């Protein structure tokens, strides 16, 4: 099985106000089609790790590989391209542009990547919305849909460039149990039907238990399986 993401001996320090060794020698990988979750107590370093793995934070020691290519050390512009092309990210809050329509929000990362025509991007965005059963909301303003629908739009936006891996930082943390289950089922379907890899930080043990693998963090380290 191909390795989609690999972290090798990742260490990170916050230097201020005092030196704080927040991530301690983190090594693990995510294979193609694997749905992994990260759990651990508040403050153990989950979000810090996810920001490094998604290439948003470059201030760390160690090596990060995406699709078996070393990304550590690449410049800002190159990282932005890699991120746009290979990584989808879903946060606890949807961060949609409320004045824009649903489909316009979904189209944004594809426009930024700039590889396709407007018509192709509209087609792809509608297809993602249809896949998530919210195709009928395409023309609605993002401010006029429910919280669960907003999170599904955020997932469609994260998928628009057909990433190799979808990362989530508590993507169900702000949802009621019905909508949280809905998001879980979407992730499962993406794994099973599209062969997508997923890496999701969660505090929800019932969610984590149903993923392929739980990566447990404690005090900046990953505990052995
Ligand atoms: N910019 C920073 N400077 C110094 N310390 C920081 C900074 N950002 C985060 N920390 C500390 O690093 C530790 C890890 O934070 P992080 O947000 O990664 O934890 P987490 O496991 O995601 O927690 P939660 O589950 O509450 O979201 C915490 O102790 C936090 O206070």
UniProtKB/TrEMBL annotation:
Keywords in alphabetical order: ATP-binding, Nucleotide-binding, Transport
Residue intervals of the ABC transporter domain: 5-225
Assigned GO CC terms: membrane protein complex; plasma membrane
InterPro entries for this protein: AAA+_ATPase, ABC_transporter-like_ATP-bd, ABC_transporter-like_CS, ABC_transpr_LolD-like, MacB-like_ATP-bd, P-loop_NTPase
GO molecular function: ATP binding; ATP hydrolysis activity; transmembrane transporter activity
Record's keyword annotation contains Flavoprotein: no
TM regions (residue ranges): none
Superkingdom of the source species: Bacteria
PROSITE patterns: ABC_TRANSPORTER_1 (PS00211), ABC_TRANSPORTER_2 (PS50893)
One Pfam family this sequence matches: ABC_tran
SMART domains the record matches: AAA (SM00382)
Family: Belongs to the ABC transporter superfamily. Macrolide exporter (TC 3.A.1.122) family.
Protein name per the record: ATP-binding cassette domain-containing protein
Native source organism of the sequence: Poritiphilus flavus
